[in-house]
Amino acid sequence: MSSDNAESNDRRWLIHKGQGPVLATAVHAGHEIREDLHPYLAADDDTRRREEDPITDIWATAGDHFFTNYVSRFEVDLNRPREKACTFDPKDTWGLQIWRERPPQILIDKSLKQHERFYQMMALWIEELIDLHGNVLVLDIHSYNHRRNGPDAPASPASENPEIDLGLTTMQHEKFAGVANALAEGLKATPYQGNKLDVRENVRYPDGGNWPEWIFANYSKNVCTITLEYKKFYMDEWTAQSSLPIVEDLRAGLCKAVGAAKEALSACPK
């Protein structure tokens, strides 16, 4: 990661380093689970994919730099603290029985090593960006389900489920409020297939998860972290079939919004 336009892919994640102060991450985009863990799985591909965040890796490319995780959150969840990163309790997985039985500890430790590597790598990457730019914007990109009651059941009320929910609990509002506002307004300004995008703030989630909270705890003086939760209106969350025109429109809108947010970030004191 020491040179511009560098890419690193260890087959379990992808790192792209460009130029600029915006880092976008898709930590739940992945679906892969190591072969040595397959004998212990209970949930099939469709069940697991329904609770993962497909497509978010496409939107992460709107950042100057981006990180895509290919590993399923059900093997190791990078957005949870280490002690919860490998969980085998259905209470932690929306009631789903992901695992038939707990794998041997040696296999769990192998997964946890990925969690450790991620945070070590990100510390170096963020510190490098702070040294280069003074202030940094991290976009933590996710998606969420709104048809949990079944493929034929009514969707959850739109009043409680915006198309994009911006999580703004892991940023210094006094310093970075203008950045968050520029991003929100930029997203709202770009329609998808002729439809105005419903963008609101802090509607669904009281916190941003371990990843943005870790950034805030360690780098809040210089890093504005915003979580983007896209409602899965761009796809059928039960069949995983997506609408490519909507996906492309959402990426174009995010790219424009990132441009506006970068201008606002440049005006923040360093």
Any overview of this molecule?
With 270 residues, this protein is an alpha/beta fold. It has helices at 45-50, 56-60, 82-85, 105-133, 173-188, 210-219, 244-266, and strands at 6-9, 13-17, 22-26, 65-69, 136-144, 164-167, 199-201, 223-231. The protein has a single domain (6-266), classed as 3-Layer(aba) Sandwich (Aminopeptidase). It has an eight-stranded mixed β-sheet with strand order 1-2-4-3-5-8-6-7, with helices on both faces. Strand 6 (164-167), helix 5 (173-188) and strand 7 (199-201) form a beta-alpha-beta unit. The relative contact order is 0.17. The model has no long low-confidence stretch (mean pLDDT 95).
Task: Please give the share of residues in helix.
Answer: 25-40%
The CATH class turns out to be Alpha Beta
User: Main sheet?
Assistant: 8 strands, mixed
| Low-pLDDT stretches | none
What structural class results from the helix and strand content? alpha/beta
* Amino- and carboxy-terminal Cα gap: 24 Å
> What is the average of the pLDDT values?
95
Question: Could you state the CATH homologous superfamily?
Answer: Zn-dependent exopeptidases
CATH architecture classification: 3-Layer(aba) Sandwich
Total number of beta strands: 8
Order of helices and strands: EEEHHEHHEEHEHEH
* Count of helical stretches: 7
